[in-house]
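Closing statement on the magnesium ion sub-project.
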Amino acid sequence: MLSHVYIKDLSKHVGESVTLKGWLFNKRSSGKVKFLILRDGTGYLQCIVFKGNVSEEVFALADSVSQEASFEITGKVKEEPRAVGGFELDATDLKLIGDSVEYPITPKEHGIEFLIDNRHLWIRSKKQVAILKIRHRIVKAIRDFYDERGFTLFDPPIITPNAAEGTSTLFEMDYFDLGKAYLTQSGQLYAEAGAMALGKVYTFGPTFRAEKSKTRRHLTEFWMVEPEMAFYDLDDDMDLAEEFIEYIVQTVVKDCRPELEVLERDISKLEKIVRPFPRISYTEAVEVLKSKGREFTWGDDFGAPDETVISEDYDKPVMIHRYPSAVKAFYMKRDPENPEVALAVDVIAPEGYGEIIGGSQREDNLDFLLERIKEHNLPQKYFEWYLDLRRFGSVPHAGFGLGLERTVTWICGIDHLRETIPFPRMIYRNTP
Ligand code: 4AD
Ligand code: MG
């Protein structure tokens, strides 16, 4: 038995005397009584220190204990519907564990640069804790979703000899005597090999892009989950993406209410994220843009403002399929009915959150794939293994990648990706 209990377990201890350990979140005081708000990572608890109930030293400590000092507190658990979390502690003893002198993040407003400089401390604040808990729940929902549907987790390498998603965003390194190597931009190409071995696989891990753009949607290190399925076509792929997004969002709605409330998220907007989602072709999306007076040429890729305009008609994610082949990756299969377009899909989140999924049916024909590799000036020798997948029992297959941080940002309803990962990496920041 642990010598202390956690705030989340207090309902089992009503009326008992227990000891808790944590940090001072906040403090109020009125004469003979001090109200200490303890946080222990599982919740928040108001601890009442009455002058008459404790020794003089303990009362003096309750008076002087400062923000984010760590301490141990003993007392009787009371139910208190009006208090945060529904319980209160009538303290009988208090011991300081680690002092905290002039904690830099005070309840007053701080600028964002200051907060990111102090990210190692900022993550202790209520909103950041709520976001990180939601991230954790989403990660588990992602694993559960695929595990329950017969997928095998398949871990691709992080160090790779070639690009997967275009050469402009590669992080390069010297790799011993073998020349240049790169941090992976996507596990997809390896996942395709996995799908030929295991049928349905998913990769889930960090991916890297040397994004030169300084936007609120781009990290240089982000997490992506990439399912890849043998014998799936584009429609099957879209069906899966839709079911997957609904599952993640509804899991958070069900399990993370307190965190969504801390973030003041409009939960009714999330409750609407149920199948079916609208599906429109790229060509139809271009018509939408034009009908709203935006200048746009068929063949160009959508920018973030275009995505916002297209998605504003819907309160669900919108799936845009069949993009011009020229703006999409080399591995995407062309539509047999119109080779100008690729069997690709992007899923655009509502409320202006932009693209959260990119996916496609893959080119499964050896000769067409070889052509694409040449067109894109990719070094064929590094793709021989990938071409083998088309030489030995090639099958139609498809998959997609969902960006974890973009998804967490949307579900949390916050402005910027940087708050959804413990230590964000961006073009202008690699510390702390
Ligand atoms: O659309 P992308 O580039 O697709 C791929 O990487 C495919 N290989 C996926 C696949 O088919 N298996 O990236 C997929 C998703 C995007 O929709 C976005 O959510 C996220 O990854 N993403 C980023 N997230 C944060 N920062 C960045 N710089 C991102 N780049 C892409
Ligand atoms: Mg994309």
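The first strand starts at residue 17 and ends at 30. With this model delivered, the sub-project is considered complete and its resources will be redirected to Aim 3.
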